[in-house]
Amino acid sequence: MGRKNMSEERRAMILDAFEVCVGKYGFDGTSLERVAEQAGFRRGLVRHYLGNRDDMVLALAKRMVARYYSQVDELLAHMGAGLDVAGVVALFFPQQDEDQGDHEVMMMEHLIAVSRRYPDIQTMLTEWLDDFVTRLAAVLSGIYPQAGEERAWQAAYGLIGLYFNEESMASVQLPARYNEAARQSATALLTHLLTAPKV
């Protein structure tokens, strides 16, 4: 594969700097001046390569959502026909000492916080979540065909909700009982919705 051209490299460097600044200061506390300083470029070059602040916010949102899609792909690749409820729960709720991707979680929280001001980000996040729930429901339906599509979708959404809460609180380093409660809640949800007979 060929070398990136200078514009692509500088654009990536500036976007990296913007991501670092948003991680430190949030979207509202991140100025073009801070991004320029972090990137080692003049403010004018930042605008030249990434546009105004709104353009930068959307570029970063696209980058982060692409990462989130990749993470979903990786997670779902570990799920298969022989997986039981305990196996599904273990994939979503690893023991607390494992790396939980604090940076991605923090960036997701920042994107959610600004999404009301950026309808394109609302759309990106909604489409990503819908894709995640739909794909997880399809996998769960394949593992537990007796559950039916609607119950599999409900289980997928509930599991993802528990997962998001657990991930968003990871940097607080809550006592282990919270992780165990999330695991037990996910187990109860999946057992009830996926393995109990339909009424």
TrEMBL record:
InterPro entries linked to this entry: Homeodomain-like_sf (IPR009057), HTH_TetR (IPR001647)
Record keywords: DNA-binding
Protein's UniProt keywords contain Cell wall biogenesis/degradation: no
Keyword DNA-binding: yes
Record Pfam families: TetR_N
Domain HTH tetR-type: 8-68
SUPFAM superfamilies: Homeodomain-like (SSF46689)
Residue ranges: DNA binding: 31-50
GO terms of molecular function: DNA binding
Protein name per the record: TetR/AcrR family transcriptional regulator
Taxonomic placement: Bacteria, Pseudomonadati, Acidobacteriota, Holophagae, Acanthopleuribacterales
